[in-house]
Specification:
9 strands; mainly beta; globular
């Protein structure tokens, strides 16, 4: 017997409903909401609130901070599927860091040092955006097999970008396991390659808008 399942997932995104500029400062709020139903077991409401803050320190140096908060009305899955049908669904999360660090721009290059989420830089092109911030975050091949810094967790690391003409090169190194707590052993500030491992990922793209990455694991 073939069981057919149908799930309706309606998403509404209200981007930057607060955007405040003050003397080299930039503050944004982004709210995304989803209504999900399978027309049988019921329905639920999922919400994601993201805040972004940038403070210029002069000389092409910025402090960047971004946080996420997730809330849903039910923990029950509407379908028995690992990835579900959502771009934001996760367990209720009052507050977690997506970005916290210093970004230094020099010419056509930039270097970020601090806490960062993998989704900020990789697998976020028009061709791959369907998987960005989904319940599996990025391609399940990676996220389901490695405890990496994938939505809604982040980790300590460095990210370097270089643009030369139409070529875009980016390389990053992260603590091998992502976290979203502020205290305890599983805190987001943890850097322990001995037990967590190291994640290295590199992208070389002739056209950034296409977003087909070359990934290197080390």
């Amino acid at each position: 017997m073939i069981v057919k399942r149908f799930v309706l997932c309606a998403a509404v995104v209200m981007v930057t409903f607060t955007n405040h500029y003050l003397a080299a400062q930039d503050f944004n709020l982004t709210y995304t909401t989803e209504f999900q139903t399978d027309f049988r077991k019921g329905a639920k409401w999922v919400n994601l609130l993201r805040t972004d803050f940038l403070q210029s320190l002069g000389n092409s140096v910025n402090i960047e901070v971004a946080s996420i908060s997730v809330a849903r009305t039910s923990d029950k899955k509407l379908v028995d599927d690992l990835q579900v049908y959502s771009n934001i669904e996760e367990e209720n999360l009052p507050l977690a860091l997506a970005i916290l660090g210093i970004n230094w721009h020099v010419g056509a290059s930039s270097l970020f040092v601090g806490i960062r989420n993998l989704n900020e830089d990789y697998f976020n092109s028009p061709c791959t955006s369907l998987f960005t911030n989904s319940s599996c975050g990025i391609f399940p091949t990676l996220s389901a097999n490695y405890p990496i810094a994938n939505y809604p967790v982040a980790s300590v690391g460095m990210d370097y970008k270089l643009k030369l003409g139409n070529w875009h090169m980016e390389t990053s190194i992260y603590n091998g396991t992502g976290y979203n707590m502020f205290v305890g052993k599983e805190n987001v500030f943890r850097f322990c390659p001995k037990t967590d491992g190291i994640l290295s990922i590199t992208l070389l793209n002739p056209n950034r808008s296409l977003g087909f990455p070359s990934v290197v694991w080390q």
